[in-house]
TrEMBL record, chain A:
GO terms for molecular function: CAAX-protein geranylgeranyltransferase activity; metal ion binding. InterPro entries: PGGT1B-like (IPR045089), Prenyltrans (IPR001330), Terpenoid_cyclase/PrenylTrfase (IPR008930). The keyword Nucleotide-binding does not apply. Pfam families: Prenyltrans. It comes from Salinomyces thailandicus. This is Prenyltransferase alpha-alpha toroid domain-containing protein. Residues 288-309 have a biased composition (Basic and acidic residues). GO terms for cellular component: CAAX-protein geranylgeranyltransferase complex. Keywords: Metal-binding, Prenyltransferase, Repeat, Transferase, Zinc. Signal peptide: none annotated. It comes from the Eukaryota. Belongs to the protein prenyltransferase subunit beta family. Residues 288-316 are annotated as: Disordered. Residues 15-419 form the Prenyltransferase alpha-alpha toroid domain.
From TrEMBL, chain B:
It is an enzyme of class 2 (transferase). GO terms for cellular component: CAAX-protein geranylgeranyltransferase complex; protein farnesyltransferase complex. It comes from the Eukaryota. Gene3D superfamilies: Protein prenylyltransferase. InterPro entries: Prenyl_trans_a. It comes from Salinomyces thailandicus. Its cofactor is Mg(2+). Belongs to the protein prenyltransferase subunit alpha family. Its EC number is 2.5.1.58, 2.5.1.59. This is Protein farnesyltransferase/geranylgeranyltransferase type-1 subunit alpha.
């Protein structure tokens, strides 16, 4: 143990930036593997991952050519719906065969719209081709009487879930297209009403769980992704109660920010093996297998050690000077109580803590070591979901985003609240100024 | 190998390929020929708003390759209803599809729709009890594969509300799930819902844990779980949830927590969650010094990964102490 210096940086694996750029370049310039077919209807968010990742790696100005950049932006606008909002993909657009009767099968889509606008912003587009008034009018129609947002509107019916992922995207659309102006605004002589903010806040407050986390709906199990989306949406509409805030307002959410904070910090965990059983109780130091502690070692799935339990199950595991193991090992985040760490939750949790203005209450260094030492893919670049997994777009993007928030200087600074580079978000005030809305 | 182009059943359809609008589309996928063809035929029949038996085959084919397609599900439901199709056969098909696509949300939404329709349309005819029992059984089958599947737990809650299954049978189900894995937080959450959901969501009886008898039963249940697995956060959270909801004093749990962690025996801590609870008990008792000591134990020995958080909590002690004084 003594040979390990207390200087943490010596132990921290580094980001293999060149490999990540290569991974994302491949995603941009070649067809995505056939396995993405199940995500065909989610292409706009795949597009956002690709463009934003290259931006975070500072490669967006070099990897695509000028012409390619123009083509990409045109593709996004090609997905814009004639009545406002964007589609998630061109697959529902019937082109010349479009008519009033089949229009119901070709709706604009809330996440599709947020990811389209975010990607345009990252590409430094001035958003002048966005049908802004139509989009904001459509956004209003996407809100249900209970305050929640749907995914699409079909035959006058709001379809899709009612969870905070959609609420976050709706708040993001509102933020990008009307800044911090609340109430009705005038766009080219057309008066556009605001969404119902109080009702939306009510939805989030209702979905707070007995244990402090936030779920998609009342009484469902709290989950870090929904918690992020809830907090993020509230921050975007300036209705967030923060733990360090002097007064917790009833017109804001969450009801009890300190409890949400508590739930969030508990998400950090040293459990990494998804196949390890969790049914064995407290092991003492002597019988805890130390197989997971070796530096840089990828844990093969199914490797449960001698006792069929994860090595770090015990709270007194750290008794007896195993702090050094901890430094080497790292600790990621899980999405729900008693689950193992997963790359994407390093973002959902890390970003939630950022939004709450308490980013350092988790162990950011351990989070970086988890990402860089365990789920970063050494050959292909990108990040997998679990240690040893092949990379995919979703985890590769959120892994980079999480690293930035956890203090890595190898990735551009990220705006946790919108999940894009700060540089991209800082373009908004200029755009808002041109629209004469509050920044 | 064209599947539809060579099939006389589809000879009248002119396939409608997707228009990407120009060169260099983003996130383009290496589709199989099979998928490209199926999509082109689907787009053609959707554009024509055809509702026919062959549409059911086509949507089934497409959903199998791309279950996240959001309007194809609506189209399929419309077609099923227009044709007065056998909705039980639809549920059978959904069973297979759900097992094949564990993480898909649309499948469960569609299932809600079908079950609702079965009960609505065939009201009086349909054996509702048989239906929900079969649904509950299917849910348990799904849990054999993944006992924490979020969509499936959400669907289970929907079944409870839809068919009023708030009774002891559902409680026994949570016990069965927890007997398999006492750390399954989804099962704990479901128990909380079964015990408290009716009072809050239906407003037609029951007080949940605010009923003294229910509270005693639930406290005992959680304490027994802690005894078996002291370092399991779920039952600790459950206990604290009861305390918070009923407004009972945290002090009631002090003796219990001290069985697992106490300042008198700082080397014998059996649960970091017991320490966390103890810190809050001391705060309630306005014993800032003891609370600080407990938080120090967490920060330095028993939960150093959250060191900064425990220090933050310690920082709040002064604030709360000042407010109390």
């Amino acid at each position: 143990m003594a040979i390990l210096s207390s200087n943490e940086s010596l132990l921290e694996p580094s980001l293999d930036k060149a490999r990540h750029v290569k991974y994302w370049t491949r995603c941009l310039k070649t067809y995505l593997p056939n396995q993405y077919t199940g995500n065909d209807s989610n292409r706009m968010y795949l597009a956002y991952f690709i463009i934003s990742a290259l931006d975070l790696l500072d490669a967006l100005k070099t990897v695509p050519s000028e012409q390619e950049r123009r083509d990409h932006v045109n593709w996004i606008y090609h997905c814009q719906h004639p009545n406002g909002g964007f589609r998630m993909w061109p697959g529902t657009d019937f082109g010349k065969l479009s008519n009033e009767k089949n229009a119901q099968y070709d709706p604009a889509n809330i996440p599709g719209t947020y990811f389209a606008l975010a990607t345009l912003l990252i590409y430094d587009d001035d958003l002048t081709r966005v049908r802004r008034a139509d989009c904001l009018e459509w956004l209003r129609q996407m809100q249900r009487p209970d305050g929640s947002f749907g995914e699409t509107i079909v035959n006058g019916r709001i379809e899709g879930g009612s969870d905070s992922r959609l609420g976050f995207c709706a708040a993001g659309i509102r933020h990008i297209l009307r800044g911090r102006t609340s109430g009705s605004i005038d766009i080219d002589g057309q008066l556009i009403q605001d969404i119902e903010l109080d009702a939306f806040v009510g939805c989030v407050r209702m979905a707070e769980s007995f244990d402090g986390g936030i779920a998609d709906e009342p009484f469902h199990e709290p989950q870090a992704g929904y918690t992020f989306c809830s907090l993020g949406a509230l921050a975007l509409i300036d209705r967030l109660n923060r733990p360090n805030g002097h007064d917790v307002k009833e017109t804001n959410g969450p009801v009890d920010p300190l409890r949400v904070l508590d739930w969030l910090v508990w998400r950090q965990t040293e459990l990494t093996d998804p196949d390890a059983g969790l049914d064995t109780e407290l092991c003492t130091d002597e019988d805890a297998p130390h197989t997971q502690h070796a530096e840089g070692q990828h844990i093969p799935k199914g490797d449960k050690g001698d006792h069929g339990m994860p090595a770090k199950q015990s709270p007194d595991k750290t008794v007896g000077g195993s702090m050094f193991d901890l430094l080497v090992d790292g600790a990621g985040m899980n999405g729900r109580t008693n689950k193992v760490a997963d790359t994407c939750y390093a973002f959902w949790v890390g970003a939630s803590l950022h939004i709450m203005e308490t980013p350092t209450l988790c162990d950011q260094s351990a989070a970086r070591r988890y990402l860089l030492g365990k789920t970063q893919h050494g050959v292909l670049g990108g990040f997998g979901k679990f240690p040893g997994d092949l990379p995919d777009l979703y985890h590769s993007y959120l892994g980079l985003a999480a690293l930035s928030l956890a203090g890595s200087d190898q990735v551009k600074p990220l705006d946790g609240g919108m999940c894009l580079s700060r540089e991209a978000r800082e373009r908004l005030p200029t755009i808002w100024k041109s629209w004469r809305v509050d920044a | 190998m064209p599947k539809y182009a060579d099939d006389p059943t589809w000879a009248d359809i002119v396939p409608l390929p997707t228009d990407e609008g120009g060169p260099n589309p983003l996130a383009a996928i290496a589709y199989s020929d099979d998928y490209s063809e199926t999509m082109s035929y689907l787009r053609a029949v959707m554009a024509a708003k055809e509702h026919s038996p062959r549409v059911l085959d086509l949507t089934e084919d497409l959903i199998d390759m791309n279950p996240a397609h959001y309007t194809v599900w609506l189209y399929r439901a419309e077609t099923l209803f227009a044709l007065h199709s056998d909705l039980r056969a639809e549920l059978e098909w959904l069973n297979e599809t759900a097992l094949a696509h564990q993480k898909n949300y649309q499948i469960w939404h569609h299932r809600n729709l079908i079950v609702d329709r079965l009960c609505g349309e065939e009201q009086g005819v349909v054996d509702e009890e048989g239906l929900w029992k079969a649904e509950c059984e299917f849910v348990e089958q799904m849990f054999e594969r993944d006992a924490k599947n979020y969509h499936v737990w959400s669907y289970r809650q929907w079944l409870v509300r839809r068919f009023g299954l708030w009774g002891p049978v559902e409680l026994e189900f949570t016990e069965r799930m927890l007997a398999r894995d006492l750390r399954n937080n989804s099962a704990w959450n479901h128990r909380w819902f079964v015990v408290n959901g009716r009072a809050e969501m239906e407003g037609d009886g029951g007080l949940g844990v605010e009923d003294p008898e229910v509270r005693a039963r639930e406290v005992k249940f959680a304490m027994e779980a802690v005894a078996k697995t002291p370092q399991n956060q779920s039952p600790w959270n459950y206990l604290r949830g009861i305390v918070r909801k009923t407004g009972m004093s945290l002090g009631h749990l002090k003796g219990f927590a001290e069985q697992y962690a106490s300042l008198k025996e700082p080397d014998e801590v059996r649960s970091s969650f017991a320490l966390d609870l103890l810190a809050e008990v001391y705060v309630e008792e306005k014993k800032a010094k003891e609370a600080g000591e407990v938080l120090d134990l967490l920060a330095t020995r028993y939960d150093p990964i959250r060191k900064h958080y425990w220090q933050y909590r310690k920082g709040l002690l002064g604030v709360e102490g000042a407010a109390a004084a």
